[in-house]
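tool=predict chain=A
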Amino acid sequence: MRIVLGFIFLAFVCFNIKAQENLNIDLVSTTSILETGNDVWGYVSPEGIEYAIIGSVDATYIYNLSDPANPRQVVRVEGTYSTWRDMKTWNEHLYVTTDAGGDGLLIVDLTTLEDSIRHKFWRPDLTVGTEISRLRQAHNIYIDENGYAYLAGPNVMSSRDDRGAIILDLNEDPWNPVHVGSQTRAYAHDLFVRNNIMYASELYEGELGIYDVTDKANPVFINSTPTSFDFTHNAWPSDDGNYVFTTDERGNAYVDAFDISDINDIKLIDSYRPLETEGRGVIPHNAHYHNGFLVTSWYTDGIVVVDANKPDNPIKVGSYDTYSGPDGGFEGCWGAYPFLPSGLILASDRSNGLFVLQPKYERACYLEGLVTDIETGLPINGVTVEIIADQLNDGETDATGNYKSGIATDGLYTVRYSHPDYIPEELKVTLEHGVVTIQDVEMTAYTEIPVELSIVDGVTQQNIAGGQVIILDLDQLTSEVFMVDSTGILNLVMQNKDYEIVAGKWGYRYKTNILYNPEDKATLVIELYEGYEDDFVFDYGWTVSGDATKGVWERGIPIGTVGPEGNLYANPNRDLEEDLGSQCYQTGNGGGTAGEDDVDDGITILTSPEILYTGPYSPTLEYSVWFYTASSGGPTNDTLFVKITNGIQTYIIDQYFENTFNWTEPVQIRLEDYPLNYDQPFRVIFEVSDQADSGNLVEAAIDGFEVIPVSLAAEEEEFINSEIRIYPNPIRSRFTVEWENQSFDQLSITDMLGRRVHTQAVQGDSANIEISIAPGSYILTLRGNNGQVESSIIIKD
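tool=predict ok
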C-alpha cells in the first residue's frame, strides 16, 4: 500500500513542474531544413531586404524575409559535415566556420544574392609563432565594427590550449582576407570584439578573458574572471561597455552579469536562469545584448528574453519555446539573432529549423526594498520575497536586508515576505513597467518553545531509538531531518507556528500527516508500527558497491537526462508519483547529457539493510523500477537484476533488459516462491551492469520499496462474504461495527503482519471503537463463545 504525504509537503519536495511558457513573443513562421540545425545570423542587403542565415550539420542556408511569414530559400551551400557551423557578415560577404572537417573559412559573396552567388573555401597556410599550418577548422567567428574577423579556436595552433584566435583584415579585399595577428594565451570557444577590446570565452579555463587588440599583431591580456559554472561558452557586453554577460554551457547553469566598469576589479553582480525549469538540467547557449535586453538561446527552453537594463536585477520579460521535447540536454534552440531593423528575432532549433519571431520588448516591473526586525531595527538576511503572480519570480534579502525582484506584467499584486524566524507579512503593491517600486517591510520574530518529541512502538509503547523525523515548516515550506538518539526522545526548540511531521525507522512503517503546533502542547508522542517501507525520504543505510567507473547508485531528487532519441528520459526526470517525498535511488544523478553520468564499464550494486520478517502471512516484496538502455551500434546487453539473499543462498527474482519507458507500476514478488529461510534476516539487491567496452547507455532507478503480507486482493476476496458492517470505512479514530443474528464477545484488530494492535470486549449487536493506529490496512475479527468467527478488512487513511 502506498502512503501519500500531505499536499503541502508534496508540493514542497517535488520539482516545480510548470513548463516554460511563451511570453511576449509571437510566432511569425517556421521553416524546416533538411538536416540538424546549428547557429543562426541575419543580414540586410543594401536595398534593405532582410535575410536569415542558418547553419546545419551539412550546409549553410540563406532565406529571403521580404515576407517573414513565408521565408524563401535563396541559397544552400553544402560543406563538410560538422555539428558546429557559425557565421557572420561584413561588407556584403558571409563568413562561415566549422569545427570539424576541412572547410577552412567559407566565404560567400552576397553582392548578387538573388541572382547567383559565388563562394569558396579559404584554406590558407598561416604562420603562428614559428609554426606554419593550413587553416581547416575554427569553432566560431566574430567580426568587429572595423572589419576585422576573429576566428575562435582555430586548428592552426598545435596545442588546443593555445587556440585563442587568429585575426583577419577584411577591409582591403573581403574575398581574400589577410592574416594580421593571433592570440595564443588560452583556447577561446567564442569571441566578441568592440572598440578594440576582445572578450574571449575560454571554455576549458572556465573564465572570461579580456584583451586589448588595438595592435592586432600583439594582443595584450588585460584581466580575466571565472564564470559561475566553470565552462565559459559565450559573452556579450552591454552597449556602454560597463557590463558583460556570460553563459556556461552546462545543465542548470546561469547567465552571469559582471560589472567591468573597472576592468581591474571585475565583479559578479547577479546571475539568472529560468525559474520554470530550474533544476531540470536546462542549458544556456548563446546570449546577445540588444537595447538593454538579453536574448538568449536556452536549448530545450527555447528563446528567453531578460530585461538587463538593471544588470544587478535581471527579470524575464519574454520567452518562446521552440522545442516540445523533454527538458535538459542539447536539443532545442541553438542560436538567436535579435538585431534585424524590423525587430524580428531569428532563432535556430536543432530539430525544427528556422523560427521567425516577433517580440514585444517592454521593461520589467521592478520591486526593491529593505526588510528589518520591528523590535531591533536590524536588517534581516535571507527573507524570501514572492510576488504572488502567474509568472514565477524570486527575491531574497542579503546581509544588509536589501532585496531586488520584479516581474514582466504591471498591476496590483500581493507580495509575501517570509523567513524561518519571523511571522510572514503580506502587502499590496502596485508595479509599473520600467519603474522601481520601493517597499520596505518590518517583520516580527516568532516565539521559541521547547518541545519534547518521542517515538514509540505502537504496540508495546516502548521508546524506539534511532528513528528519523522530518519537520516541515508550513509557513516557509522548508524542512529539516532529525535523528532520534538512543533514548527515543528528541528535544527541540520550535516556534509558535504550524508544522507537518513525518517519522520513520527501518523495520517500521512511516508515520505521516502529523500536523503540529507547539503552542497547543509541548510534548508529542509518535507511534510507529512494524513493517518495511522505504520511499527514500530518509537514509536508512542502503549500501552501494561494485566496480562501475561512474553512474553508481545514489539517493537524491532525480535530475532528468535525455537519451539520443530526443524524446525519452534516460535518468528519471521525476520521483515516483504518489509516494512519500521526492527522492529515489538512481544510477548517477549528475544531469547534463545522457552519457555523462550513466553506468559505465562495470556493475553498481545497491543492497538493502537486513530484513527480518516475522509475520504469519507470506511476505510480498513491492517496488517500482525505472530502466533505460540504448545501444551505440552493438548489441544492447546491459541489465538490471533484482535479487534476494540471506548470505548463503541468492535468487534472481526480477530482471530487466529493455526500456521501461517510465516508472513501472508496483512490481509484486511473492517471496514464498523462493526457498530462503525467512526465520533469518535477508537482503534485497538491485544490480545494474554495463558490459565492458559496449559504449551503451544504461540507467536505472528504484522507489516505493515495501515488504507487505500476501496481497490485499486475495484477503479482500477471502472476506467478501463477511456479515459485518463497518462505518465509516476507511475508518477514522472512532468508528462503529454492527452485526445481525450473531453473538460475539470479543473484537480484535491485527495488522497485516499478524500483530494485534487492539482488543476489546463486545456485546449486543454493535460496538463503538476508538483507536489510534498508523495508516494502512488491518483485519478486524469478531469471536463468539460458540466458536463463531467473522473477519473483515478495514483501512485507515
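The radius of gyration is 32 Å. The first helix runs from residue 7 to 13.
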